[in-house]
Specification:
Blueprint lengths: L1 H4 L4 E5 L10 H6 L6 E5 H22 L4 E7 L5 E3 L4 E3 L2 E8 L4 E8 L13 E2 L1 H8 L9 H9 L7
Antiparallel strand pairs: 1-2, 3-6, 4-5, 6-7, 7-8
Length: about 160
């Protein structure tokens, strides 16, 4: 509930950003449901996470291509909670972006901490393989194994 976030120091950080749906008010409104948010420190939500979302959006506009974006949270054993409903505060946030027409895949992992945003996404970039190992998940199992292995193991610099 909204009261869980009040004076907690955390924003209701979107997983799917409202800015991705400026063309449709009903879809934009749906991004504000609690199923699409998690507690994010203000410094993360308003700077590094916001910049990452904006960079992905800019890249899609520039290449005029499809992008599949996976967003999620990672909780460690020592995670905190906020509010009377004990909303879990993730220790880390991640995004994976797959541009199939360009045959490129990028992954980002950010600590949900007070670390100051450096201004460069390279400090948050990891391979999809590294992220899958951390989370014990396989995100692109439907891809051909050879393609999946190449895409998920490369650490190409994300350029907008």
């Amino acid at each position: 509930a909204r009261t869980d976030y009040y004076k907690s120091g955390y924003d209701r950080g979107h997983h799917v950003p409202a800015g991705d749906f400026v063309y449709s008010q009903p879809l934009k409104d749906e991004t504000f449901t609690y199923a699409n948010v998690s507690p994010q420190l203000k410094q993360v939500n308003r700077y590094s996470w916001k910049y990452l979302e904006s960079a992905i959006r800019k890249k899609v506009k520039r290449c005029n291509c499809d992008a599949y974006v996976i967003t999620g949270t990672h909780f460690l054993a020592d995670y905190k909670t906020v509010g009377s409903n004990k909303v879990g505060v993730p220790n880390q946030l991640y995004k994976i972006v797959f541009y199939p027409q360009q045959a490129k895949m990028y992954a980002f992992l950010m600590n949900n901490s007070t670390a100051k945003y450096s201004g460069d996404l390279k400090y948050y970039q990891v391979t999809v393989d590294e992220l899958e190992a951390l989370l014990e998940l396989d995100f692109f199992e439907a891809l051909e194994d050879d393609d999946e292995n190449i895409l998920e193991s490369n650490l190409k610099k994300f350029k907008v």
